[in-house]
């Protein structure tokens, strides 16, 4: 995993710094001990997407180049859920103290956020609670 950290660039690096401290939390380990899920966070205006991997109580991030678009397709990247929007929208969601379902739904309805595999993406709300 330390090799992965060295290779992270751009948006993937930012996401990694936000979520990897969860590996130290017992509450996270307990809550996610039976879960295996991959959620692709794609910053449409950036060069890198972040594949968030939760694997039985551990979380880490892999960087995936946005171009060509084939790189981020489900069959190539192997994600279960996709959350795609502009970088500033992600920073707003990651940096905000309270992420409400209503706030996210409003952004989905206005087309600012694109989601595929919603049940897997909802795992992010649990992460934000921690």
For the largest sheet, list the strands in their spatial order.
3-2-1-4-5
Q: Low-confidence segments, ≥5 residues, pLDDT <50? A: 1-5
Task: Tell me the structural class.
Answer: alpha+beta
**Top-tier CATH class:** Alpha Beta
What is the overall pLDDT average? 83
CATH architecture: 2-Layer Sandwich
Radius of gyration: 14 Å
Tell me, what's the shape?
globular
| CATH level-3 fold name | Nonspecific Lipid-transfer Protein, Chain A
What is the number of domains? 1
What profile does the largest beta sheet have?
5 strands, mixed
End-to-end gap = 22 Å
What series of H and E elements makes up the topology?
HHHEEEHEHHEHH
Number of strands: 5
Quick one: CATH superfamily? SCP2 sterol-binding domain
In which range does the helix fraction lie? Answer: 40-55%
How large is the count of helical segments?
8
Question: How much β-strand is present in the residues?
Answer: 15-25%
Describe the protein in words:
- This protein has 130 residues and is α+β, with helices and mostly antiparallel strands.
- The protein has a single domain (2-129), classed as Nonspecific Lipid-transfer Protein, Chain A, CATH 3.30.1050.
- It is built from 8 helices and 5 strands; from the N terminus they run αααβββαβααβαα.
- It has a 5-stranded mixed β-sheet with strand order 3-2-1-4-5.
- The longest helix has 10 residues, at 10-19.
- The two termini are 22 Å apart.
Would you spell out the secondary-structure blueprint of this structure?
Elements: H1 2-7, H2 10-19, H3 26-31, E1 36-43, E2 48-55, E3 59-65, H4 74-77, E4 81-85, H5 87-95, H6 101-109, E5 114-116, H7 118-121, H8 123-129
Parallel strand pairs: 1-4
Antiparallel strand pairs: 1-2, 2-3, 4-5
